Amino acid sequence: MTAHLPVLQVIVPLLAAPLCLFLRIPRLVSIFAILVSFAAFLISCGLLSQVLNHGTLIYEMGGWAAPWGIEYRIDLLNGYLLLLITGVSTVVLVAAQSSISRELPENRHTFFYTAYLLCLTGLLGILATGDAFNLFVFLEISALSSYTLIALGNDRRALTASYQYLIMGTIGATFIIIGVGLMYMMTGTLNMHDLAQRLPEIYKSKTVLSAFGFFIVGVCLKLALFPLHLWLPNAYAFAPSIATAFLAATSTKVAVYVLIRYIFSIFGIEFVTTSIPLSEIFLGLGLAGIFAASINAIYQLNIKRLFAYSSVAQIGYMILGLAIGTQLGLTATLLHMFNHALMKGALFLAIGAVVYRISSSQLNHLAGLGKKMPWTMAAIVTGGLSLIGVPLTVGFVSKWYLVVALLDKGWWPVAVLVLLSSLLAVVYVWRLVEWIYFTPPRIILDEVEEAPLSQLIPIWLLVLANLYFGVDTRLTVGVSKLAAQSLFGVTP
Amino acid sequence: MLGGIYSLLSASFFIDLDAVDVAFTEASVGAGISTLLMLASLKLVNRYERKTRYKPLLALGVITITGALLIYGTLDMPHFGDPNAPAQQHVVPRYLNESMAEIGVPNVVTSVLASYRGYDTLGETLVIFTAGLGVMSLLLVSSRTKKESKNLVPADMRQQIILRVVAKMMIPLILIFALYVQFHGDYGPGGGFQAGVIFAAGVILYTMLFGLGVSQRAFHPEVIILLTAFGVLMYAGVGVACMLLGGNFLDYNVLRHDPIHGQHLGILLVELGVGITVAAVMITIFYKFTWRTVKHKYHQ
Fold it and tell me: Which one, out of A241, A339, B242, B283, has a CA that is 20 to 30 A from the CA of A272?
């Protein structure tokens, strides 16, 4: 059975999603979803350990060898992300039990969990596949189901937000498929490994260049790179809290993965650096994104929107790591993808707990909650510290590696800017602290209690992960380094 | 309307390019169902768009740049129909030459779609299921609406005797044609996607002329919703069965002793799965839209 692990990783949630409709009883469906996600997590653990021991795993769908058939190709990079996505998804689902039953009417629960599992399927499919078109198919699955997840939000504005996301996401997907089409026309293959071998002959071709252009713009729309991020804040703010926690922790990371995969494993870093000034563009947009989004975050009145803008800023850091274009820079990006998923997972789950208790995510309604919900608030503050990059948290580790990579490249002014931008994070996190602990309550809080254990445990699991991986970096740094090495060295 | 015409025109384009299967899909999905669903959703909203302020210049700029990039991309393209183009050279020869021996299906499109790249098709089926799920979860229908819609026949349709008589003659033919397309996909153009859409079109025509209540007695909405999931499960289930029999996921060779028979059986089953999901999703979406119309018309 271990030989089938790569495909099981994706088809377990794939089979489970339609089964949810047959189970019908919401309570049953939610437990089923947790079990499925946990099973996927175990599979991903197995996969990563196999990859670490035996190297890249290849699985041929239908027994047809690539490039005729579709293959799954698990290496360190996607093995590492599969572990992250399934892990976060399981933790979020545990918290979903109580949160969803409060936020959504009961006749929508089954649909919510089905869409959630579909989204998980899509994300895992994107990560596992070694085929450029297959990636697009699963991108569509994850995108369509995330539109559904967002639109299920209670607020009517969730529908507009989801629609906005749908339009932007569809444009992004169309651009990606145009890119795939042009590349197929030039090489006659859709397999990534095969593409990487056949592309160097025709690097000078204008068609390949425009294919690359379409790819980059399409993927950047998906990952909400500044200034293509406009869909993100509303989508995160109005979606059900659980959907926000899941999407914020996973979906943009997967889009960054797609970008890395295309740049390093398909087109090759040589082509990318020689054909267009991508490094300069990413440097500019990354920095602009960090500053614009952080400043925006400072002025937000809704905590979900605040952290949504902060997500855009964090994506800026990841892109900055890519812009450096060295192995160290890539390591920093990979690290930050993992770490940011932990931070945002914890923060949005904690916000979910707040919404569960006070049915609001307005900043001024947080006032006085420091006494009423001490554990949840402590989680938010720890997550915030991690966002700033205080030592002993994961945020510190990723910022450290980013700054080291920048200095190594000799871009010290950029390193200074990165440190300055952390100060902006201090401002918006401090605003939170001030409201939580030092302001008298604005609404009646007599009946408010600490969040239920079923939410506190997942929240603190993620918070502790934030602290643990901030101290013990063997797994994260180790795997990121190895993955970056293989992307630069071994892969053609 | 223009959208429908556009789809029909591009369907004829595809025929010109010898892509009969694609043309078939475009004609049934693009010109048929999606125009219908568009009209159904137009029925729900006002006729005129509310005036909104928007910035046409920005959009124009984006479109110009995209168009320019597309044209720039064509500069180094291989010539149309060039037999030496990479797209004709690399993987295609095996599909064309070996598929008869490896899979035993005369229609190469079907063998690529359902076997060589069968996993993609599973993904596409899941995309359709996801879309259906999105509509199901967002357009919830109250039981009151359901009850009221039971015995309604669209008033303007009662007068249309010719339409009703002709439709009565056409609908069985449409349904049989759908089944033909479904099961003949191995040999001629067609397959699960087209068949599902044609089948759904028959049901939708019936619903439009005779009312939701009558049609739901034949196609119960709850059952149809379960069928959307059933089709996907059937497809993936075939894959799992292959795994249990010792092959890779979706490796139909192991289904029977003779690999060719295995391939036949596998393709037949997965195409049926696709057909079921597609038809069920289309019917569900149409039902949901119609309920909404009923609600708007009679509840206010």
Answer: A339
**A384-393 confidence digits (pLDDT tens):** 999 888 888 8
Q: In this predicted model, what pLDDT tens digit does every residue of A208-250 receive, in sequence order?
A: 888 888 888 899 888 888 788 888 888 888 889 999 999 999 9
* CA quadruple A210, A216, A221, A226: dihedral sign: negative
Q: Which helix (H) or strand (E) holds A144?
A: helix A132-151
- Cβ burial, residue A38 (10 Å; 0-12/13-18/19+): middle
CA atoms within 13 A on the CB side of A389: 19
Chain A residues with CB-CB distance to B138 below 8 A: 148, 151-152, 159
Q: Which of A14, A20, A230 to mutate to test the interface with B (most CBs of B within 10 A)?
A: A14
Is A291 contained in some domain?
no
Task: Work out the angle at residue B224's Cα, subtended by the Cα atoms of residues B221 and B225, and round it to the nearest 5 degrees.
Answer: 90
pLDDT at A365: 85
The count of structural domains within chain A is: 1
* B-chain residues near A18 (CB < 8 A): 129, 228-230, 232-233
B119 touches chain A (CB under 8 A): yes
Q: Give the pLDDT score at A491.
A: 44
**pLDDT for position A267:** 84
Whether A413 is covered by a domain: the verdict is yes
CA B47 centroid distance within chain: 28
Give the tokens for residue A172. 């992004």
pLDDT at B297: 65
Could you identify the residue written with the tokens 């966002």?
A387
Backbone angles phi, psi at A256, to 5 degrees: -65, -40
Q: What's the rounded Cα separation, in Å, for the pair B24 and B11?
A: 7
Domain spans, chain B: 1-46, 107-300
Q: pLDDT class for B149, splitting at 50, 70, 90?
A: low
What is the CB-side half-sphere exposure of residue B105 using CA atoms within 13 A?
30
Does the structure show a pLDDT above 80 at A412?
yes
CB A279 within 8 A of CB A323: yes
Tell me what pLDDT residue B54 has: 67
Residue A397, domain member (yes or no): yes
* Inter-chain touch B250–A61, beta carbons under 8 Å: yes
Q: How sure is the predictor about A492, in pLDDT bands with cuts at 50, 70 and 90?
A: very low
Q: Is residue A469 part of a domain?
A: yes
B22: which chain A residues are within 8 Å (Cβ-Cβ)? none
Q: What is the pLDDT of residues A20-42, one digit of tens each?
A: 988 888 889 999 999 999 999 99
Which residues in chain B (261-280) have CB-CB distances under 8 A to chain A? Answer: none
Tokens of A457: 């445990």
Rg (CA), chain B: 22
Q: Which domain range does residue A326 map to?
A: 298-492
A73: three-class secondary structure by DSSP: strand
Rounded alpha-carbon distances, angstroms, from residue B121 to A154, A458, B97, B217: 34, 36, 22, 32
Q: B148: number of CA atoms within 13 Å, CB side?
A: 15
H/E element, A74: strand A71-74
* H or E segment and range at residue A194: helix A192-198
